[in-house]
Amino acid sequence: GIPNTINAHPHSSEAVSVVHNGIIENSTILKKYLIGKGHKFKSQTDSEVIVHLITENLKTGEIQEAITKTLKQLHGSFALGVIFKNKSDLIVGARRGSPLAVGYGPNENYLGSDSYALKSMTNKITYLDDGEFCIVKKDEVHFFNEEGKKINKKVLELSSDEENYDKGDFKHFMAKEIEEQPTTLKNCINEYIDKINNDINIYKALLDSENLLEKFGGHAMASGLTVKKDNLQLLNQNLNRHMEKTYSKKDFQKSMIVDAVLDLDDVNFNLAKEIDRLRPFGVANREPIFICENVRVVSSYIMGNYHRKMVLEKAVPLCRHQVEAFHFNISDPDDLAEYYPKIAFKLKINKFKATAAQIIIEDF
């Protein structure tokens, strides 16, 4: 929805209030269901769906059961903070995809999106993993998995360095983050600019034309900039000169480095989790690409006009191992393969299924 008071957080019903960071992908379907149950919506947001869904589920269960049921009904990514009119002594936190942490203090506990948000109050933190939720009271915290079963979590102690995480003279943290973006970008970019290999580097090209730009930022692979209209032609000439001076034709030829040939049976969550440990990926730390052979499409459908979501398996009898796959920007949506003799892909953790992997197919 548009930025206005009605669409701003928190969203509330007569019994529940929610703050939400993320996207609820099936909010339209859930909203129709809830309207049919008599719920009235005030905002244009997907977040308000969560409020009414929890309210509806509280009719048939206590808080723990209602939250468990609600999380199973939601598709998407989110970090949630939930309070209840008749339970003023507790807060519920839940996460899938978006980060969430619990902080511990003397006779008080906290819920925040990150340790930085909590560090001014405590250095003892527990991070929620995907699919988990917690019930936070001032003197105790209980954690639950996606099935609503109680689990134990480690309490981590943050380092006691002297770095300042308060908002200083700024009105709020958002203003501080906006103002500090140039410094933050420069620090990040200096870590990842490729100083050895002659790879195409957009940021270096812009540095050569810095005197023509009002402002700019980014990294080797992408950037944003502001330039006056009168300088556009000069900028174009400068960039062309930079490219001719720095790069040869071979730098513009598409190539792919394959890290390993895998059996599709080995493509699973455990391997995706190990690959994820290698982040952050960038010019100096390339994301691995794998090959699988003899793969068939079990099911598929087109998202938008040019993206294909599939379930794949080995093209052998009695195969039971299946993998979710996405192929973005396909060239011809009317000519879809049902069998791949060979596919190249990047392996990811499925952010919407807590213990599953998915692959992103690469063209080659």
Task: Give a brief outline of the structure.
This protein has 364 residues and is α+β, with helices and mostly antiparallel strands. It has helices spanning 27-36, 47-57, 63-73, 115-118, 173-179, 181-192, 202-207, 232-246, 269-276; strands at residues 11-12, 16-24, 76-84, 87-96, 101-105, 108-112, 124-127, 133-136, 141-144, 150-151, 156-157, 213-219, 222-227, 260-261, 290-303, 307-314, 322-327, 339-349, 357-362. It starts with 10 loop residues before the first strand and ends with a strand.
Which descriptors would you attach to this protein?
7-stranded antiparallel β-sheet, 5-stranded mixed β-barrel, globular
Commentary on this structure:
The structure is a single chain. The chain is α+β, with helices and mostly antiparallel strands and 364 residues long. The chain contains 9 helices and 19 strands. The strands form 4 sheets. The protein has a 7-stranded antiparallel beta sheet, with helices on one face. Helix 2 (47-57) crosses helix 3. The longest helix is centred in the middle third of the chain and has 15 residues, at 232-246. The protein starts with 10 loop residues before the first strand and ends with a strand. Residues 191-198 have low confidence and may be disordered.
